[in-house]
């Protein structure tokens, strides 16, 4: 009986400490979030027809940011963009990505819109993974925006009249610090498809994950050699955005690993263009106020300071070493995460990004 009381006492103390730590983190995040809400930006006297890709988090972030940027915003499905343009008569047709769910007559519709005297712009969010297809799409638009540095010269070489590097961003009204229950808490979290480089990484660190509280979500994780060992950590299939946000908030550390870019089963990148720019997940994790451990892309240094606003790794061994270190150094982990949150709210929201878009597209006030 005495031994049982001792065990229960230790468990209670651990629970209290964990709750206290989460409370400290939640309070600090809330303070930063409340004090970094941007002042209203000037409204541009422009009418925009937006065509979503079907990337829920990105599309909704852009739509809300457009509503804070331009006088009139309309949203239409890709299958009837030309018809809607003829009715709305926007100043600009603004398209996200133009892939996957777009109809076969997509490009014919774009040409029909241009024939009405309406300017057209496309923002590629999947570069460079589908450049075998985007090279046929880009020349049909007046302006091409891409979040990937390595594809800028590609589109210019195709004769596209205006090509602009434009990083993606995050909607901080959705991806934000929130309080979550124990069911969403973990030591280590990863959410995403099991592309082959991710499979190799998690196979390599599988022995370290044993005994940790781990959450992994996404498709294709059956590819793991260590699938039986890690199966208890894995939630198969697509995870709704709002659930991802809860798991990001509940994690002590979130791993971010960019997908490989080489042409193959998972990509349509015939030219094997490298991935130099960071993925939108980087902004989303940071906006939740959680420490992120990410692999390095060339453009990372222009958005976040490694070791200050997030952490990086270059090998499975370094990842394990840093996971172990930051799981044991809670205060340092929290401070880095808070600085990442601050930087994101200051510079990497869709409202701020759409202000840049407005400038480069010369949308007038």
Description:
The chain is α/β, with parallel strands linked by helices and 365 residues long. The protein is 42% helix and 16% strand. The protein has helices spanning 2-35, 56-67, 81-88, 106-115, 131-137, 152-157, 196-209, 227-230, 241-250, 280-287, 316-328, 330-347, 350-360; strands at residues 44-51, 70-75, 92-96, 119-124, 143-146, 163-165, 186-191, 214-218, 234-236, 251-256, 291-294, 311-312. The strands form two sheets. The chain has a six-stranded parallel sheet, with helices on both faces. Strand 1, helix 2 and strand 2 form a beta-alpha-beta unit. Helix 1 (2-35) packs parallel to helix 12 and helix 3 (81-88) packs parallel to helix 4. The protein is globular. The model has no long low-confidence stretch (mean pLDDT 93).
Question: Tags for this entry?
Answer:
365 residues, 13 helices, single chain, alpha/beta, globular, 6-stranded parallel β-sheet
What is the element layout, followed by pairings?
Layout: H1 2-35, E1 44-51, H2 56-67, E2 70-75, H3 81-88, E3 92-96, H4 106-115, E4 119-124, H5 131-137, E5 143-146, H6 152-157, E6 163-165, E7 186-191, H7 196-209, E8 214-218, H8 227-230, E9 234-236, H9 241-250, E10 251-256, H10 280-287, E11 291-294, E12 311-312, H11 316-328, H12 330-347, H13 350-360
Parallel strand pairs: 1-2, 1-3, 3-4, 4-5, 5-6, 7-8, 7-10, 8-9, 10-11, 11-12
Helix pairs in contact: 1-12, 2-13, 3-4, 7-11
């Amino acid at each position: 009986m005495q031994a049982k009381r001792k065990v229960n006492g230790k468990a209670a103390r651990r629970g209290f400490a964990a709750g206290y730590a989460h409370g400290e983190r939640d309070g600090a995040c809330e303070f930063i979030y409340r004090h970094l809400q941007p002042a209203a930006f000037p409204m541009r006297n422009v009418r925009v027809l937006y065509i979503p890709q079907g990337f829920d988090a990105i599309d909704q972030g852009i739509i809300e940011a457009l509503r804070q940027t331009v006088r009139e915003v309309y949203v239409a499905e890709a299958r009837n963009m030309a018809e809607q343009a003829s009715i709305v008569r926007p100043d600009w047709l603004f398209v996200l990505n133009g892939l996957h769910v777009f109809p076969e007559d997509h490009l014919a519709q774009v040409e029909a819109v241009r024939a009405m005297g309406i300017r057209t712009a496309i923002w590629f969010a999947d570069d460079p993974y589908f450049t075998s297809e985007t090279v046929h799409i880009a020349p049909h638009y007046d302006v091409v925006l891409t979040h990937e540095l390595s594809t800028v010269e590609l589109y210019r070489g195709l004769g596209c009249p205006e090509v602009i590097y434009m990083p993606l961003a995050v909607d901080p009204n959705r991806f934000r610090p929130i309080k979550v229950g124990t069911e969403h808490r973990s030591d280590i979290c990863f959410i995403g498809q099991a592309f082959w480089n991710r499979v190799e990484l998690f196979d390599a660190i599988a022995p370290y994950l044993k005994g940790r509280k781990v959450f992994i979500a996404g498709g294709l994780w059956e590819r793991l050699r260590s699938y039986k060992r890690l199966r208890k950590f894995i939630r198969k299939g697509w995870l709704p955005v709002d659930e991802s946000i809860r798991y990001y908030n509940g994690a002590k550390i979130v791993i971010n690993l960019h997908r490989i870019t080489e042409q193959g089963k998972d990509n349509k990148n015939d030219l094997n263009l490298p991935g130099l720019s960071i993925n939108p997940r980087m902004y989303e994790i940071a906006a939740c106020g959680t420490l992120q451990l990410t692999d390095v892309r060339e453009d990372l240094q222009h958005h976040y300071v490694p070791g200050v606003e997030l952490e990086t790794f270059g090998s499975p061994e370094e990842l394990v070493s840093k996971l172990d270190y930051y799981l044991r150094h809670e205060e340092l982990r929290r401070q880095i995460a808070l600085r990442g949150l601050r930087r994101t709210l200051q510079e990497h929201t869709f409202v701020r990004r759409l202000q840049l878009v407005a400038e480069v597209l010369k949308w007038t006030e």
